[in-house]
Amino acid sequence: MIWYEDLYVGYNLLDKKRKVIRKIKNRKPMFDTYVITLPRNDYDTLEIYPSNVLIQKWYHKSDMVVIGIAKGREEALDMMTLIIMECLEKTGNVNVKKYIMEQMN
Question: Is the pLDDT higher at 12 or at 42?
């Protein structure tokens, strides 16, 4: 699992960012916390996962790129919309994966 350096953080997790990241990295369950990731394929925009799914070993060994964390599915969906809108404003398209990967390099 790869963490985006300029991680998008939902309003309800701003004061708990480090704690949430630590729990996810240590594979501890959390209620109603979601992560936003880059898609594993080239045709989706973004993916949302409940953080509890990330307890599974496969996710920690994968090259999944976490770009955001949010409290609740609705906040995650709102954040996903904001990320897509930011990408559209800055690049003129909605290829979020390319936009984020360019910022990571």
Answer: 12
